Structures are given as C-alpha cells and as structure tokens.
Amino acid sequence: MNLVSYDNNKLLKKIQELDCLNKNIVDPRNVDFKYSNGSYYLIEEVYGNKIDNNKLYETIKVSILNGETSVNLNDKSCYENPKYTLKSDKTIETKAILDKYVSTKITYLFERENEVLGGNRIKEWLSVDDDLDVKIDENAVKDYVLELSSKYNTVGMTRNFKTSTGKAVEVKGGYYGWKINSIGETKLLIENIKLGAVLEKEPVYTQKALYRDKDDIGNTYVEVNITNQHLWFYKNGKLITQGDIVTGDSSKGYSTKLGTYALNYKQKEATLRGPNYEAKVTYWMPFNGNIGIHDASWRYSFGGEIYKGNGTHGCVNSPSYLAKTIFENIEEGTPIICYEE
C-alpha cells in the first residue's frame, strides 16, 4: 500500500522552476570536424549540462515515493549526452570519408589553360549532419561547373571577324562553339569527389568547337556576307570556292539569322518542306535548325538585292556549282559565319 501522496501539478511546477532547467544551459554537442592543410582533425565533443526533462521528472517522482531527500542527476543519467564522441566508430569512419573527399584533385584541361580543383575548394561543399553522415552540396558543385562554363564556353559569344572584303565586323549569336554539359559534368564531378580521384581531364561537353584558341573558328569555314549577298568557303586557309547567293527575304521577315553556326550534317538529294512550299535540292547542308545552304535550280540569278523582295525563308540559296563544291569539301562541324557589314 502506497502511503505517500503528492499533488502532481505542484510537483511539475516546482521542477520547472529548478535552476538546472533555467540557468546557464549548455547543450551537448557531437564531436566535430575541422579542415586544415588538406585534411580534417577532430574537435572533442561537449557534454554540457542540459537536463532531459522527462528523465528528471521520473527520477524525482520515484525518489519522492521512496522517501529520498536527494538525487544525483549524473548517477540517474538525467543529462542529455552527445550521440557521437571521439571514441565512436562512426567518428573515425566520417573522418576517413572527409579526408578522402578533400584528397581529390581534378585538373581541367582547356588547351593552353588549366583549372585545378582541390581540397581547399571542395571542403566548402562538405557538411556533416547530426548522424555524422557526410553531405556534398550539389548546388555548390553545380555553381562551380557554371563558373567554368562562364569562363570557357564560347557558344553565342561576340566574335571579332575579318571579312573577305577586308572589313572587321562583330558577329554576335549563333550556336557554334564550346559548351560544357553542366548537368553531366556536375554529376561526374560528384562521383570523382566520392572516389577521391586525382586526374587530368576535359569537362563533359555538350558540343565542341574546332579549336580552343581565342579564335575558335580557325581557318576552315564558310563566310556568308548578307550585305553583299556573297559566300566564301575556306579550307585550311585556302579559298575553295566563292559566289553570289540569295539569303532570307528581309521584306517578309525571313532574314537569315546572323551569328556563328556549324554544319550539322550534309545530305545528297533532299526535299525541303515548309509552309506553302516544297523544294527538292541536290545538296543540302543545314547549320541552324532547318536553315541551311543548298542549291536552287529554280533560280536563274543570284546576288544583288534579290533577297529584299524575292529572298528565301531563311536558307542560303546557291548556284549548283557553288553548292556542289562546298558539299564535296565541307565536313560536319565546320563553322558557318553569317554577318552584315
């Protein structure tokens, strides 16, 4: 028979007023990890003095019922303790993982330039959660890859180009150039960090240009002068052919888009279709979607100002001899520069 009774609400109130629950509380903290000079060292855990309220209540309740006048909170395990300490197996495992990740060294190759990624940058992307699991900030990795892209991508950049007529023009836009595959490279970089890889590599590219120099066009290209309605084709610096052309009809909103592009492919005998037209051509060389260079057997004259009222839907119409010569000598990926003077 229990001879001791008490008012539970008053007991709870008294417990909540205890100094150990209200003054100078220091929370327990797991062992921590600090990066320095290429590896991590351990920072000792903190036990603190934070009370587990439920344990305290149960301990005091039992003590009252047993007629006890004092309670040792340490003996009764009333304090909250860190989950992981210097001696925990998980601590050693986590440190090994962190050290492996920051041992990674990736040297990105960009022809004459390199970008070296090492532990000093990678450590900014690492964190350890309450269960001592190591997390890699994928968004931070992606941001790094985007930094590389911003510095080394050349697609759509403004290029200074010296024309065959001797003028210097700025050519903006187009799809030719280097373009890093940010999604693919981010994924691969995370995998390499997890492996602690040390290697030299190119980034994953969505597309490549012919050259990595400041002039990524080189000396093999097709030059389309919209203003003069004339085309030149150079291969290895040598003029292969040239001639008058007809480009997109500016009066109808079909102007050939300016910019630097690349030959997508070439096809012998093709049928081109669009709104209200169908045309069979012998030499088809697309470079901007369904816009390309091709012969136009239905035309009897080229050049001049034909394009201003009787132009194309955006394609570059060429005399058969011109289209044939280009077709026989051009290769996929060859730059095609469309500009106005």
Features:
341 residues; alpha+beta; Ubiquitin-like (UB roll); L,D-transpeptidase catalytic domain-like; 3 domains; 5-stranded mixed β-sheet; 29% strand; cell shape; Transpep_catalytic_dom
CATH C-level category of the largest domain? Mainly Beta
Shape call? elongated
Helix percentage range: 10-25%
Uncertain residue ranges:
none
Alpha carbon gap, first and last residue: 107 Å
Supply the helix-strand structural class.
alpha+beta
Mean residue pLDDT: 90
Whole-number radius of gyration?
36 Å
How many discrete structural domains? Answer: 3
Output the number of helix runs: 8
- Spatial ordering of strands, largest sheet: 14-13-12-20-15
| Named CATH topology of the largest domain | L,D-transpeptidase catalytic domain-like
What percentage of amino acids are in beta strands? 25-35%
What's the count of strands? 20
Second CATH tier, the architecture of the largest domain: Beta Barrel
Largest sheet: 5 strands, mixed
Fourth-tier CATH superfamily name of the largest domain: L,D-transpeptidase catalytic domain-like
- Order of H and E elements: HEEHHEEHEEHEEEHEEEEEEEEEHEHE
What does this structure look like?
The protein is α+β, with helices and mostly antiparallel strands and 341 residues long. It folds into 3 domains: 8-83, no CATH class; 91-156 and 176-207, Ubiquitin-like (UB roll); 221-339, L,D-transpeptidase catalytic domain-like (Beta Barrel), CATH 2.40.440. It contains 8 helices and 20 strands. It has helices at 8-16, 53-65, 89-102, 119-122, 138-152, 182-195, 307-310, 320-329; strands at 32-36, 39-43, 105-110, 113-117, 126-128, 134-136, 159-162, 168-171, 179-180, 198-201, 205-207, 221-225, 230-235, 238-244, 259-262, 267-274, 277-288, 291-295, 316-318, 335-339. Strands 14-13-12-20-15 form a 5-stranded mixed beta sheet, covered by helices on one side. Strands 16-17-18-19 form a 4-stranded mixed beta sheet, with helices on one face. Helix 5 (138-152) crosses helix 6 (182-195). GO terms for molecular function: peptidoglycan L,D-transpeptidase activity; transferase activity. The active site is at 294 (proton donor/acceptor), 315 (nucleophile). Keywords: Cell shape, Cell wall biogenesis/degradation, Peptidoglycan synthesis, Transferase. Pfam families: PG_binding_4 (PF12229), YkuD (PF03734). Residues 220-339 form the L,D-TPase catalytic domain.
